[in-house]
Structure prediction request, 143 residues.
Amino acid sequence: MTEDIAYSGPLDVATLEVIGGRADTHPLVGGWAFEPDSVSPRQLTVHLKSAQYPASVESARLDIRWYDGGDYTFHYLESQNETVWQCRWDHHPKAGAQNAHFHPPPDADRTVESSELETTNHLGVLFFVLDWVEKRVERLHGR
Prediction:
């Protein structure tokens, strides 16, 4: 992420632990960890199973930050043939956009679109994003 954003408060580590635990129940998820570690986390990283993807996708993950005030960022990244294909769902005050907004692929740059997310519930956001990723994997497989 290249933007400097003022989020509402520090990371909500307890909510991130719940998100990680629930993400781990999804068939695409191969585990989660705090980065750089659980003592001083800066984000939750959810690793997606590479076996679920076509061979052209070397790795995929979600980098998640959830803040005490309810703001969040869910950053989806795929490594393909030495490039990164990425997008991001954010919720924070942003001039010229709704609080909930989407930075589209392939580079998740400063382009902003309306988000289809209609919830600010942490598990609702998680499963919306995982459903989106699942549809992405289906498209990659040509289904």
Notes: The radius of gyration is 15 Å. Residues 13-140 form one domain.
